[in-house]
């Protein structure tokens, strides 16, 4: 079941939330909960709306003002939207990384330069011996 589906009339939503229908109308006017409307302008509440009404009741019982509740709900909704967007972007990035042909790998060249190496390619390293002598070193 889609939690955002507008399935409850105001009396059913009020009963599920443990509130009076007039309270739901007031919260709608204040913008705390915004139920969808039928073509005849009747309110239809979703399960998400009912859960939000329950949260409003808890916050109100804890002494939070209606303006404070409105702000808390607004921020919670924004966090949920952003979390959903992050999950979408993470999925898109993972798909892109898996499907990208010829991913680029970099290595250090012999002269210290950065070179691009095709995935799965092994670099040939010179097997010559280099003797290091410090400049201005001690003479024996």
Automatic annotation (TrEMBL):
Q: Where is the HTH merR-type domain?
A: 7-75
Hydrolase: present as a keyword of the record? no
Keyword Lipid metabolism carried by entry? no
Its domain of life reads Bacteria
* Coiled-coil segments on the chain, per record: 72-99
Q: Which UniProt keywords apply?
A: Coiled coil, DNA-binding
Which PANTHER family does the annotation name? HTH-TYPE TRANSCRIPTIONAL REGULATOR YFMP (PTHR30204:SF58), REDOX-CYCLING DRUG-SENSING TRANSCRIPTIONAL ACTIVATOR SOXR (PTHR30204)
Name of this chain's protein: Transcriptional regulator
Q: What is the lineage of its organism?
A: Bacteria, Bacillati, Actinomycetota, Actinomycetes, Micrococcales
């Amino acid at each position: 079941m889609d939690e955002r589906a507008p399935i409850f009339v105001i009396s059913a939503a009020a009963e599920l939330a443990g509130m009076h229908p007039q309270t739901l109308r007031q919260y709608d006017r204040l913008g705390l909960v915004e139920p969808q409307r039928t073509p005849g302008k009747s309110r239809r509440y979703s399960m998400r709306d009912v859960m939000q009404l329950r949260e409003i009741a808890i916050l109100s019982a804890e002494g939070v003002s209606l303006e404070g509740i409105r702000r808390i709900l607004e921020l919670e909704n924004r966090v949920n939207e952003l979390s959903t967007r992050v999950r979408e972007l993470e999925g898109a990035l993972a798909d892109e990384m898996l499907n990208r042909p010829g991913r680029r790998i970099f290595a250090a060249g012999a002269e210290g330069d950065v070179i691009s190496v095709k995935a799965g390619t092994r670099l040939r390293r010179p097997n010559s011996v280099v003797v290091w002598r410090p400049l201005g070193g001690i003479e024996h």
